[in-house]
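User: what does the whole thing look like in 3D?
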Amino acid sequence: MSHLVLIPILIPLLAGALSLVSWRSLLLQRWIAVVATGLLLLVSIGLLQLTREEGFVVMHVGGWAAPFGITIVADLLSAIMIVMTGVIGFTIAIYSMAMTPERHERFGYYPLMHLLLAGVSGAFLTGDIFNLYVWFEVMLLASFALLTLGGERAQMEGAIKYVTLNLFSSAIFLSAIGLVYGTVGTLNMADLAYKLGQVEHSGMVNVLALMFMVAFGIKAAAFPLFFWLPASYHTPLVGISALFAGLLTKVGVYALYRFFTLIFNGDVDYTHNILLWGAGLTMVSGVLGAAAQFEFRRLLSFHIVSQIGYMILGLALFTPLAIIGGIFVIVHNIVVKTNLFLVSGLVYRLLGSYDLKKLGGVYRHRPGIALLFLVSALSLAGLPPLSGFVAKFLLIRAGLEVGAWTVTGVALLVSVITLYSMLKIWAEVFWKPVPEGVNTERLTGEKPDSQLWLLLLPIAGLAACAVLIGVNGQPIYEVLEAAAEQLLNPALYIEAVLGDQP
Amino acid sequence: MLLSLILLPFIGSLLPLLAAHKGRTVCSWLTAAPPACALLLLLSTAPAVFQGELLTIRWDWIPALGLNIGFRLDGLAFLFALLILAIGLLVILYGHYYLSAKDSHGRFFSLLLLFMGAMMGVVTADNLLLMVVFWELTSLSSFLLIGFWGHRRDARRGARMALTVTGGGGLALLAGVMVIGHIVGSFELSDVLAAGDILREHHLYPVALVLVLLGVFTKSAQFPFHFWLPHAMSAPTPVSAYLHSATMVKAGVFLLARLYPALSGTELWFIMLSLVGLSTMTLGAVVALFKHDLKGLLAYSTISHLGLIVLLFGLDTQLAVVAALFHTVNHATFKASLFMSAGIVDHETGSRDIRLLSGLRHYMPITAALGLIAAAAMAGVPLMNGFLSTEMFLGEAIEQRVLGGWSWLIPAVAVFAKVFSVAYALRFIHSVFFGPKPGPLPKQPHEPPFFMRAPIVILVVLCLAVGMLPALIVGPLLSVAAASTTQTILPQYTLEIWHGFNLPLALSVLAMVLGVFLYSQRHRLFNLWNRLPPLSAPDVFEFILHSILVQGSRRITKLLESGHPQNYLLILFLFTIALAGAALLQLPSLHGGVSMTAIDFPSLAIAMTMIVAALGTAILHRNRLTALLFLSVVGLGVALVFARFSAPDLVLTQLSVEVVSIILLMLILFLLPRQNQRDSSVQRLWRDAVVAGVGGLSLGILTFAILTRPLDSISKFFLAESVSGGGGTNVVNVVLVDFRGFDTFGEITVLAIAAIGIFGLLDGMRLFNPRHLGHHYAKDRHPMLLSVLNMPLLPLALMVSLYIFMRGHNLPGGGFIAGLITAIALILQYLTNGLNWTNERLNDNFHPLVASGVMIAGLTAMGSWFFGMPLLTTAHTHVHLPVLGEIPLATAMVFDLGVYLTVVGATLVILENLGKLKPFTSQPTTEP
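Assistant: Here's the predicted 3D structure for the full assembly of 1430 residues, as structure tokens:
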């Protein structure tokens, strides 16, 4: 059964190759996309189930036992992230059916999407730091290619910033891997954790830890390393924006969680204090950035940054409850943030703009869409009983328990500003009458849109998730509790991968 | 039963939506049904509640967090639930007539019931967290109701302001509740109420109290958070009557009552509540007099009365609690009816401006009479309910000793506020209904339909009934509610209209007389008021938000998000250096103890060459071609380093990568200007040089520190296992295709993505004519000699790559290098013969080639599954072939074939697309 842990990587990889083979048949590519991401979702749920039963699902690729070969490991955190990858992948595949111009499709939209998902899955599942780098590269290149699809000037500008800053991250990451190998002579995460645990925690380890922190901090878009995100996320096709918004930064956050629970846990006062500062400043700078924006997707992009702060906060506080809260934020945010981007795309389709000043009247003409937006937006702001409420509740409680008053206060304040920001969108896009000179044929339904259901279906699905995660919090909490327990007991992971060590 | 009490409005909120197309009447009936049922249910519990029973139910929600779904019905909850359901029903009746045909009845009533359900949840919740959940829901439904006329700007602004303030307060409340839960260890109301002493003595008590009170003050519109309420008046009047006078704004008051046993009794509690209540009461009463808008006047009056109730909770007497609850009920009845009257005036005349209205009693005498009674109750005229509770209030105000020596201040200010409240009540009645007939109004005034007035009649009758027979009508209800609020036995008190001549009565009379006098002098006061600088709350609110939040954040964002990648990189560099450097400085010693090898000449020469070449690249970067040449020297230097440390495989790889990338870069250079502009100032160059230098130096020092430390690595395993486990003597290749084959798999995926990406990126890209860029070309596009020599080169090169591929497992070589060699050979064909010539001879759709490479590698990897082995497990054997001799065969070689195909395919896709780039004007870059 442990083969199952590889399937989430192989499905999108092979789907990508298959789509490449059927380069000329767009219809086939579309269906491959839906079927493959659907399969990914199913398999991921299976994997989560298996991980819940067995704790860890470990696979040594090539039969080479750790630490010599590459180990693929699913613990609960990984499995949860894979499920989220499946959910978002499937959602985007359906959404893309109606929202992708043929020009994009002809230039490899679907193969790139699959390969991006493969990179994301690989990053979540690998237990080897160099292999992680490889999947980061897969993701980086696929996302860069997706960013430039369409070839508009704004896209190029955004993509250049994106790729430059991310290459810097790759360089730091690769250097850090080399230096780690030079220090302990291994690449396997479990082995690394074990060996670092054996020696006295030296200052050298802190240097390495901080290099990884910078590399992943850039990927996660933490303060002050987030510039690439708001510069680029609003430029590509909206499905791509949504995919990126949901998954990409979370890979960086995931890597931070993995490294700073499993590997670099020897000098928590030093490393996690830096993370705490980073978390607070990320929350604030992101939400302040959003306040000045009047472009739908750019506004949402800044909120991604802000929410990353909450996720890092969970890691930085480093208590079981905080970790649970952090993962809860990740899960909730993937659903909600993706959905907000999808809604922005839907509104774009109805009114032809992302500029808040040129939008309006959606509540009047399409109350259903307005409701779907409101569910996601209020969940993002953390209003009960939606998913964001439980997430925020956990973090604040964790913050209070350790007496981290300032950052807890900041977290609360930021969520008020988030609320204000979401209300701005609501008032501008949904309540305000349609501005003069905007074509409302699609909004009012005068010009029927037969494919609209393909956009509504994923949005409604994700909104339902946001409600369910909030209302049905207990089982999710239990899974996350187990996940946090695994994370805070690195010995379990080490033993699962390496077997009993003397 | 308790559950259905709360669920009925929620379920009911769907009915109006479903019945929206059935017409207004059906819709309204269906809306009224659930609250009516709920009200009957509530009344059926009355006997139990009045005997002091506590009805509860509970389920788990997230028990691990102490988040449970539990409800309780005691006297306090009963009192508020009664208000919510009864006034709700009246408002539905009123709303049926109030809304115009243009408004969506379904949506309106649905939201109204949603609010009702949320409010029922707040008052019956048995778990503090659950209460916060409903609390936020009331804010939300209030937001949607205020903005019901979303096309109006004032409605949108008012709604946003209300939700930002009350929603923010809700978050503070959440934090406060969590602190309470942290102290008590439970969020269950019964636990919290029992833990009052623990709470009050805990060092976090002030934090909890302030946070909870923030929630209370924002919700109940207390100074300085009161400003949202007047602007919530842009809601339809039924909403104002229901949410913003009778129920929602009382949620804060309710919370004070609910947590009274847990939080009250400390100096902080008394001081905060009495000062905030006192200032709110005064401010509201004064401002109300000067409001020309009927609803604005009522809104400030509501603020003032809420202040009064909060003040009562802040007085240190038990009876003050009774008075507070009594006044809550009284205020709800008279204020709701006043709002409805104001709504009728607005509805039937088209205006709410007191300056325009006058003498309406001539047109709507019944409404005028009803308004008169309600306003009298508001002013505290004897025989009305308002009189009784204000009398109690004045009595308690005189009794209390909250402010020590300054305690006389409270009754004094209370009388002052009451003077104003008498004056504005007079204004509401006298200016609108009395006096001469009005000038031209938007509509011809007339009486409203009977049933629109009916709710007012009921409420006014209640005002009178309570005012005259208090002990009979509200006595039991009040005592059971007050008992469950304080959780103690109440002192004796009597509800009577006549308490004899005493100080409160005297003060009341004084206030009335002064109030009438004040009203008679109103024109002077208005003149004075007009001289004050105008201050509009939404403007201030938006100004604060705009100047601090938007402008400030714009500035910060500009500072950080300059839009220049150079600046971003600078910040990234500096941050990395600072972070890692700080940690590096803490190392006790850089040298780790391993002795260094002696410097030999070749190493030194290679190093110096690389340093010089790197510097050359940086310094001469403006001349692109030269810079590229220097760059290639750096690349070759790396190959030499590999050679120096005996890694022939890496040398081969590095060399072929170098060749391919330099050729591709050359192709691109052709499309760029020969020289680029000088775009950085000298200072900036120096700055960048310093940053780059420090960065490089830090990394160098770090590497030095690490290399001088002893190391035990897993490399030995690879050397030992390569032949026996991987079936090849070339360890590098075995590592690539076997030990770490999964990495390779990922890397060829990267290559495939690059191919697709470049295909999409370059398609349709139009560039400037290279001739204008200052390039000079050889006349001979395809030199004869080159093409002649090239002809035999292709098969030779292919042979070489096959050879390299086959021997790869044992000797330097392998699929990656072989693929690059093949690619170089094909590139040469393109270069010498042109794109079209080559494409005629090759299939120009390389995507499937790339894909087949990835597929072959993937399928080979998965092949091992059929033998029940982990992914990528290899098998190997040796076969003897003629000519080639002993050939080791490993499944890894099939995998390597996948690598080979991907490399060739990807390189060709990239090359072909670079070659296809066409300048604007026709330029013979390709074969004609």
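In plain terms: Residues 292-493 of chain A form one domain. Chain A touches chain B through 121 residues (CB under 8 Å).
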